[in-house]
Amino acid sequence: MASTGSTESPHVRTLDRMSKAAEKQTHAIQASRKLLGSMFDAIPDLLVVLDHDLRIVTSNWKGYEQVTQAQRDSHPHCYECLMHREEPCEECHARKVFDGGKACQMEHTDPTDGSTKDICALPIFGASDNVEMVLTHVRDVTRYKQIEQELKDYTVALESQKMAMEEFYIAAEDATRAKTEFLANMSHEIRTPMTAILGFAENLLVPDLSEEDRTNAVKTIRRNGENWLKVINEILDISK
Predict the structure, then answer these.
(1) Residue 135: which residues within 8 A CB-CB, separation 6 or more?
(2) How many CB atoms lie within 10 A of CB 190?
(3) Which of 59, 88, 90, 223 can bridge 48 by disulfide, Cβ–Cβ 3.0-4.6 Å?
(4) Which of the four pLDDT bands, split at 50, 70 and 90, describes residue 53?
C-alpha cells in the first residue's frame, strides 16, 4: 500500500531558502538604513543628499525641522525647500560636483539675516564611477565669523594702542630732553648773574675802593639782580 504522506520537492525547498535569504537581506537593508539615519541625526550640521535633478534624496533636516514629513517624502528640489528659490542658485555647488566629479567648498552669506554658511559638497560615485549623487554638508559659521572679526578689530585696536604708546614714548623722551636742556640753560642763566652779584658785592667790602669803582659795582649788582629776577619770572611763567 502506497504512503499518503507528502514531502517537499527540491524546488519548494529552494524557494524557501531564497525567501529566507531575501527576508534576511531586507532586514539587513533596513538595519543599514536605520543606522545611516541615526548617523545623519547625530551630526549637528545639515546633511543633504541630492540627485541629478537637485532633488533631496535624504537629509537630517538640521536647521529645517519645520519642513513637514509630507514635504520631505515628496523629495523637493533643494533650492525650493532650503533656499526658497524658484530656480537653482547661480553658483550651484552640487552642479559643479556633478559636472567636475570633484568636491568643492564655498561660503554663502544670507543677505536677509547676515548668517554665513560653510558649504562642502562631495561626490557619491556609482558602480560605473560616475557621480550619481552629491552629499552636501552645511555648517553655520556665523558665530565663528563674528569672533574672527572681533579678533581682527581687537588686533587693530592693539596696533593702534601700540602706535599711540610709541608716540607717547617719543614725546616723553623729547620732553625729558627738553627738560634737561632747559635745566642746563637755566642753571647757566642763574649762575651767571649770581656770580657777578657775589663778586661785585665782595668788591664793595674793599676799604680803599674808589667812589667810581663803588658806583660801578653797585650798578653791576643791580643790573645782574634785575637779570636774575627776569630769569626767575620766566621760570615761574613756564611752571604755570
Answers:
(1) 47, 48, 49, 121, 122, 123, 124
(2) 15
(3) 59
(4) very high
- 28 versus 173: the higher-pLDDT residue is 173
Q: Are 119 and 136 in contact (CB under 8 A)?
A: yes
CA angle 75, 79, 84 (to 5 degrees): 105
Q: Which is it for the CA torsion 12, 13, 14, 18, positive or negative?
A: positive
Q: Quick check: 47 and 62 in contact, CB under 8 A? A: yes
pLDDT > 60? residue 2: no
The pLDDT, as a whole number, for residue 7 is: 59
Say if residue 11's pLDDT is above 60. Answer: yes
Question: Residue 52 pLDDT > 80, yes or no?
Answer: yes
Q: Which residue, 140, 110, 136, 139, is CA-closest to 124? A: 136
CA distance 136 to 126: 17
* Residue found under cell 517537499: 8
Residue 89: all three cell numbers together = 542658485
Say which residues have a Cβ less than 8 Å from residue 124's Cβ, sequence separation at least 6.
49, 131, 132, 133, 134, 135
CA 186/CA 231 separation, integer angstroms: 8
Alpha helices in the chain (DSSP H): 10-42, 69-73, 78-81, 93-100, 142-203, 211-239
pLDDT of 23 above 60: yes
Please, which residues bridge with residue 137 across strands?
47, 120
Q: How far apart are CA 159 and CA 127, in angstroms?
A: 57
SS3 52: coil
User: CB within 8 A of 140, min separation 6: which ones?
Assistant: 45, 63, 115, 116, 117, 118
Q: Residue count of the chain, please give it.
A: 240
